[in-house]
Write a structure and sequence with these properties.
The chain is of the alpha+beta class. The protein has 20 helices and 26 strands. The strands form 7 sheets. The protein has a 5-stranded antiparallel sheet. The protein has a 5-stranded antiparallel sheet with strand order 5-18-19-16-15. Strands 8, 9, 10, 13 and 14 form a 5-stranded mixed sheet that branches. Pathway: Nitrogen metabolism; nitrate reduction (assimilation).
Length: 590
């Protein structure tokens, strides 16, 4: 096994950290979904067989051993036929970019290149709705980006006219749309010039490392997450060169580093979550593992009963990934996320496999000195808020369902340059924060025309609105989401007044990219029948999801609701569960 390591620098504890640690603390815990009983290993021989790594290194890439290839899923067969990372690491993308779509479609090998393997490079062919065009997903650790990066992305989508646009994703990331294959080598060069990459952002890879969107500027932060998320991204992508040690996972894998009392990072839905905690005077992290969404099952992350010092953030990430890569099954894609492996082995046996892969084969048990407060009420980051740096503020802008055009991106970059330090922060709720604004510039900024579209003070029902791509571009989506989410929310807002924000999430299919299970009210796309028995677009409605220190997943409230019937249902839910008041009554009582 080749070695790949990054030494994590020791971090000094800030005054903010000390002030937080002095407060009463209650350890955060989340309850897992019902899980299967651990496997029964009735003999040392059976145990050795099950714990034999299923992959091996060949010519610097990791491949599935021949003895474990029976019953594998179609995606694994595509990986076996041709190593996806060769398209990047051996410049296969250049040859592919010079081929016509007609020639590409003549061969199954090249057709699989553009439909499957290019996802390892962050390129998603929109065969169903935009044939010959691609969505490109970036890697943007902690959601931090610069004005120069934003302008470059705007220049890419601008050339594609109405086919080009961009989305803020639920992993603090950019996705740009309309990309054509012949342009990709030049786009890759441009990304590198501004310090960006799209490498390893799709399929069976580690997704964008999520952190606190207020890192380094929050007066109440526990720790600045940016150094950790940056190092995680550097490790995962091999400093933008590719890291084949972690590119052949059984399925996708999410990671976050928690730095806020508000848990903006949503740790309970990540495969690995770093939860800040001290131990014997040392700063580090307790670990949660296994959180995920899928069409067949959703599970909350559970404690690994492990604590690591700050220096071991990368080694433990590598160890967990290797345990999953080596031992995860590769059959039914609905049962290949890491939690299924944890269920099969049992959490203690899985922990032992992680320990085996640590540099010194040691892993401390979890700490009781958790730094996240159970009683903390999650704050709203939209609007104007003071930073920890005296005389400076940040402004949170609401980006309706995360959709932006090229001219919007240019304007956002200009505002970041003119009023801040040329920096933008993307959030998992698909919004954008401009940090480091001198207070003397706030009044002028708030009068900028762009803030009429991207308001710092949106209506309460709009504040928590999230929507996935939907079937406008995504071939897996069953219904249209973004425009419908805005339409339904506006209609509901005209009918009722709510006393506080209500988070409403839309997802076009059961893959739940819109994370409906963590919303107050969630809408998952489906096909159903209307009152006349005709097939129509509909939604399964979820209720009761929570984020923050008392996080838990919501449950199905009503299945198969025709989209045309959603407005009265949502009004009823808001009145009965969230204290909403009909607008007529509200006006009459004034």
């Amino acid at each position: 096994m080749s070695s790949f390591s990054l030494k994590f620098p020791s971090l000094s504890l800030s005054p903010v950290f000390h002030s937080v640690s002095a407060r009463p603390r209650t350890e955060v815990s989340v309850s897992p979904s019902p899980a299967a009983a651990p496997i029964s290993l009735d003999s040392a021989e059976n145990e050795a067989v099950r714990l034999e790594p299923r992959v091996e290194e060949r010519d610097e890439y990791w491949v599935l051993k021949e003895k474990f290839r029976e019953g594998i899923n179609p995606q694994e067969k595509v990986k076996l036929q041709k190593e996806p990372m060769k398209l990047f690491m051996e410049n296969g993308i250049n040859e592919l970019a010079n081929m016509s779509m007609e020639d590409i479609d003549k061969s199954k090998l090249t057709k699989d290149d553009i439909d499957v393997r290019l996802k390892w490079l962050g390129l998603f062919h929109r065969r169903k709705h935009q044939y010959g065009r691609f969505m490109m997903r970036l890697k943007l650790p902690n959601g931090v980006t610069s004005g120069a990066q934003t302008r470059y992305l705007a220049s890419v989508i601008k050339k594609y006219g109405k086919e080009g646009c961009a989305d803020v994703t639920t992993r603090q990331n950019w996705q740009i749309r309309g990309v054509q294959l012949p342009d990709v080598p030049e786009i890759f060069e441009g990304l590198a010039n501004v310090g960006l990459t799209s490498l390893q952002s799709g399929m069976d890879n580690v997704r964008n490392p999520v952190g606190n969107p207020l890192a380094g500027i929050d007066p109440h932060e526990i720790i600045d997450t940016r150094p950790y998320t940056n190092l995680l991204s550097q490790f995962i992508t091999g400093n933008f060169r590719g890291n084949p040690e972690v590119t052949n996972l059984p399925r996708k894998w999410n990671v976050c580093v928690v730095g806020s009392l508000d848990l903006y990072e949503h740790p309970h839905i990540n495969d690995l979550a770093y939860m800040p905690a001290t131990k014997n005077g040392r700063f580090g992290f307790n670990l949660l593992v296994g959180g995920f969404f899928s069409p067949k099952r959703c599970a909350e992350a559970i404690p690994l009963d492990a604590w690591v010092p700050a220096d071991d953030v990368i080694p433990v990430c590598k160890a967990v990934l290797e345990a999953y890569r080596d031992l995860g099954t590769r059959g039914n894609r609905q049962k290949t996320r890491m939690m299924w492996l944890i269920d099969e082995l049992g959490i203690e046996a899985f922990r032992l496999e992680v320990v085996k892969r640590m540099p010194q084969q040691e892993l401390e048990r979890s700490s009781s000195e958790d730094l996240v407060q159970k009683q903390w009420e999650r704050r709203d980051y939209l609007g104007v808020h003071p930073q920890k740096q005296e005389g400076y503020s940040f402004v949170g802008l609401h980006i309706p369902v995360g959709r932006v055009q090229a001219e919007d991106m240019d304007e956002l970059a200009r505002l970041a340059d003119q009023y801040g330090t040329s920096e933008l922060r993307l959030t998992v709720e698909q919004n954008i924060i401009i940090p480091n604004i001198e207070n003397s510039k706030l009044e002028t900024l708030l009068k900028e025309p762009l803030l009429e579209k991207f308001s710092p003070e949106p209506p309460l029902l709009m504040k928590g609105l999230v929507a996935c791509t939907g079937n406008q571009f995504c071939g897996q989506a069953i219904i249209e989401t973004k425009a419908r989410a805005l339409k339904v929310t506006r209609e509901v807002d005209r009918l009722v007044s709510v006393p506080r924000p209500v988070r409403m999430h839309w997802t076009g299919c059961p893959n739940s990219c819109g994370q409906v299970q963590v919303a107050d009210i969630g809408f998952m796309g489906c096909m159903t029948r209307d009152a006349n028995g005709k097939t129509c677009e509909g939604a399964d409605v979820f209720l009761g999801g929570r984020t923050g220190s008392d996080s838990h997943l919501g449950d199905v409230y009503k299945k198969g609701v025709p989209c045309d019937n959603l407005v009265p249902l949502v009004v009823d839910i808001l009145v009965n569960h969230f204290g909403a008041v009909p607008r007529e009554r509200e006006e009459g009582e004034e």
